[in-house]
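new request in #modeling-help
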Amino acid sequence: MLLWQTSQTINFAQGEFVMLPAFLVLAAMRFGGLDFPAALLVGCLASLLVLGLLFKRLVVDPILRHGVLPLVISTLGLSIFLKEGVKEFYAAEAQGFPGFWPATNFQLGGAVISAQSLVIIAAALAAVALLQWFLGGTRTGRQMQATAQNPQLARVLGIPVERMILYTFLVNAALVALASFLVSPIYLAKFTNGELLGLAAFVAAIVGGYNQVRGAIAGGLLLGVIDNFVAAYWSAQYRAAIPLFLLIAVILWRPQGLLGRAEERTV
Amino acid sequence: MKRGLITAIAAVLSLGAAHAQQTVYMPIVIEVSGNGAVSGTNFRDGALMAIDEINAKGGILGRRINAPVSDTQSNAGVSRAQVQKAIDGDPYVILGPVFSGSVKVNMVLAQQAEIPQMTGAEAAEITQMGNDYIFRTSFGQQMSMPKMAAFVANGLKARSVAFLWVNNDYGKGGRDVFFKEMAARGIKIAADVSTESGQVDFAADVVKMKASNADVMFIYTNEEECARVLRELRKQGVKTPIIGETNVISQKVIELAGDAANGVKGHVGLTADAPIPAVTVFRDKFQKRFKYLPDHNGIKGYTAVYAVKHATEKLGRFDRKALAKLMHGLTITPAQEPGILIETTWDAHGDIDRISFLVEVVGGKQKVVEILPKLGK
């Protein structure tokens, strides 16, 4: 969503972007002999480099000038490349990924809440709050927003548009790395993880509103809650279909998304 | 000049033919990637280890085994194409695959070509479809599930079971046999939870199982999913006894699930932790070579190759039809063929009978708590 806002980049490899950082950490541990905290740092830096800087310079910049469709096809190709690359050079099998939390549970009014869930919720909330503060409360963030809203005008106002777009790619890389580190201890690290995560993220962004950060967050939350309620209280067999029904309904009746803003373009 | 060239080409071709005569073609068609990669790579590595050992000692009846590996990608359609490709090479035996859904669609090809197929699949119906060329390398569900049912009824004294299964041929086959066994024993199925192959989020499924208040929870999925379910069960603080058949207590699941696997009990037809010296030697050799602990699929692949070797040497010739005929009713003991590891019998359908084990995961390791005798004894 951030990438679309600033550079009209639709990234169909976003799921694989979430899959890859976990393998960068595991590779740093296995081949570099690093301990987990050091490997996390290396994984984070490598993600910024590969999924932020190199993705922009080697894929987006040369192809975007030919239009959005070639870029969409390129990111589809990139997703296959990343998936097959991990399968070929690391493993086709699922890999255990260490968690940063103790395996303890808390009792709360008869419900069991794991420390793991609390860490994930806290990290997600912190990331969202930090992102909102960065985008709205700092000069750089406001320049990034201005770039997203109207790059031509932003350039006229002296904002370094290219640098702002690069920052957006780096922020995206940092967020996918965080998601990867949080989700891999539960889902295990596997080269196919991106298929499911990418689809879920895409549906959530469209349902919530592709042009609003809060819309994407609300879409993700709504999707997760509906998915689990359907599986637990109705039918596990149809759980995969429900988000797609929701997606179709939103596209038909509220194409801008539940919290999105309608955009008009001059043709 | 021209004649010299023709002579040279003829010489090279005859050399190639001579080389072909000295090998026996036994392709491995297996799950190297996809959801069955854990099972498939174990089977493949076990088979390759046996093949290298046999080739180092001169091969089978003086012919070295040529066993290229092809990946089914855990996809039934791809597996059928790979088996067809293998058949085009005129194989003596086909090794694999492991996924029941794949075997069901590709075994017909091997049957039509009259090529024996040593499979790691466990779905009950595979050996009930009148195929004289399919041979198991482990228990089918019709053998293992009655043992599990007896364990639930007599060992755990449970009156209700929550059953989580994977919605593929393997899972459905196991579910049907187990439910029949439970009904015969008057044990209630408190929750019947279907899951998908490759599923990653089991939160809702575990909520469903918890809500059933069953005496025990039975996990019956493929390895990676088993590990995710165990992690979720621990995450949700489940204290109910967790049981399973083979996969949930396999080495790979223990490795992936970590502490969440501790305390899980179940039945395994094969385990690398069996208190049998030959199995221990196999496990150590395997771990030294491949840098990971083998699971039951590793033993399946290893013993499949040795079974073919023993039967062929008993025949004294390479004859596919005669091999299939001989394998029905054949018993191989470790004294006759050390590579078989445990005395094994194939019945008239290609089903296997051997001793099996009740195990518990203790401290991140399988601990054998009871050895169950062969059903035929």
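bot summary: The interface with chain A takes residues 32-34, 37-38, 41, 167, 193-196, 198, 200-201, 203-205, 207-208, 211, 224, 227-228, 231-232, 234-237, 252, 255-256, 258-260 of chain B (CB under 8 Å).
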